[in-house]
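Shipment paperwork, digital attachment
Item: protein structure file
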Amino acid sequence: MIDTVRGTAERIIDVVPLVMRSIRAKLHELRAADINVHQFRAMLYINRNHGTSLSDVAAHVGVSLPTMSVLIDKLVDRKLVSRDARGGEEDRRKMCLFLTLQGQEELNVAYDFAQKFLMVKMSRLSKEELKTISQAMQILQDLFVISPEK
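Attachment content:
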């Protein structure tokens, strides 16, 4: 069991960065949206978690609060993200983050571009292989959504 767990863990550690690197390279080609991978992941999280906090986005993307603060400042300057104060407070750490309409549009362009890239890559796979990957993704999602720290 330990060898199976260890081997599977090694495969995840090896494969996930490879997939993300490929997506990052593809997004880099997309100059229309002009969104890098950290911005893409932050905007995707904000889109799925309306009114989320800076801390939550930083934790999701895996960067420090100061780094995420700079990233969000740039997205706000580009009018892709808006900040709203919770309870009228001016403390930026207590701000709720939302995508603007322009942010939603740019996210959609980048998301569609990344999705089409993955679809082309996976079009070579058999239905059985696609089903296996889909099942594995669901298992990983369930495992890490329920208990990301364990």
